[in-house]
Amino acid sequence: MVGQALEDPIQGLAEAEKHDFEHTKEKAGSDDHIVSSAGTHELDGIHDGLEFPTDEERETLRRVPDSIPWNAYLIAIVEMAERFSYYGSSVVFTNFIQQPLPKGSHTGASGKTGQPGALGLGQRTSTGLTTFNQFWVYVIPLFGAYLADTRWGRFKTVCICVGVALIGHVLLIVSAVPGVIEHSNGSLACFVIAIIVMGLGTGGFKANISPLVAEQYKRTKLFIGTTRHGERVIVDPSLTASRIYMYFYLFINIGALIGQISMTYSEKYVGFYLAYTLPTAFFLLCPIVLFIGRNMYIRSPPTGSVLGNALRIWRLALKGRISWNPVKTWRNVNAPDFWDSVKPSRIHGEARPKWMTFDDQWVDEVKRGFKACSVFMWFPIYWLTYNQLNNNLTSQAATMVVNGVPNDVLSNLDPFALIIFIPICDILIYPALRRAGINFSPIKKITFGFFTGAAAMCWAAVVQHYIYKRNPCGYQVSTCVDADGNPVTSDLNVWIQTGSYVLVAFSEIFASITGLEYAFTKAPKNMRSLVMAVFLFASAISSAIGEAFVSLSSDPLLVWNYGVMGVLAFVSGIIFWFQYRHLDQEEDVLNNLADGEYDDGVHDGVHDHDKL
Known about the structure:
mainly alpha; 2% strand
């Protein structure tokens, strides 16, 4: 239910006085109905009239999330429409590239018994191009974040990127219309241009839509509330951010599920042009909703890029700490005083650089941003497991008995599982863990995400082993045909892939959603787009690494492909835990740093960290 979690910052105090400082939190399926207690005033228009916990209460009271502001749901609808269009189109990319145009078809459609296709370039080329698309879409957010921070702000950047992505969708339709699809060279050229243009729009959109949805909730400090059963609890903004991203991800997967299911049947029974046209039509919902809600969203003005000074601080802190001994260098860089040594209060007179126009607190925020980015260092290995969904696992499905079901419809088990299990985690599992006193922290969640991703790859490797074992052609199953040229599959039913998709879905709940939350809550306010872009860039690095494994993406090496991915994810999860488990103890400190002062010398009057 959309709650009253957010009042206009300017009118917040008046509204709070009008309602006697009451704050309501309603949660479906939960007894956590919160009414905040009037107490210490902090006249910032956001935390007015709230009671803040003592140190003892921080340690003893149960923590709960706040309700989600309604305008966050409105932005989530925009993301749902964009993901419908993106996944609805990209889910058919593998067949479009890999499989040949069916005999007599002018659209790529195959009917019930055939295999839809268009370009006929094989599995390696298909995996290479789809991996490039994933790389491109997730490297562009770095540029989208820069534009948002320095030029346009997040909302305007989102609007412009929607327009660019729309052009790419139109080009995608052109690549698949009858008359073009029959000429593979022309269709391929148009297709490649389309995914490049779409990537420009989608990448810029992704870097800014996630911070935009979360910053609709403005409270940043722990405060005391009371449930309808009289229990005093702490309302935790970091848990609220987690809840926002849980349901944001739910909207993503609603869009992905509807788009993918409908488009796989469109390609199979009508043609690829329809599978690209329908997502484009649905994508038009994005500019409509953005226009309708343009005056309802909380927007952050561009504050100038802090990347330059952040890197200068880091370089200054590194002075004298680099050694030919890598162990010594590692210890120096992770020393407790690494960031303290470059705080302005420690540097006086001529020793202070001219660009040092900030305070100590701002250095603490940059430290927090670097910590968040360092956590994402291991995510490229995690994304290797997820990236198997829409290329190799789709190809694997084509080598089993599908009984008229499109081979690429199986990938919808992932968003379907997410739609089921995200509310279960939010309403049942996570509250139960908190009541039991179990701190299932972001670092623990991400670690579990690595392990469940590894388990998904083990499942896929076992399935692939039995596909080879039960196919007449043995280890050449993807090219196995009968005397008439019709594909010959193993006798395994395609639905045994379910385990891989469900396990990947759980890994997303633990790792991907938590990564979004971590990128938002740990980033300084004027670095949120940038840190979110770094999180998304991890997927681009993963795609680049994935290109190195393309040689494993064909018979007879596919068991090795899934096995290697699983081992890498499992080992990375272990290293991740031992490297970052200490951050569990720093969670509250990192979440509750106050805003530091920063003056870029250019954006005077708007550099006060996103305040309206």
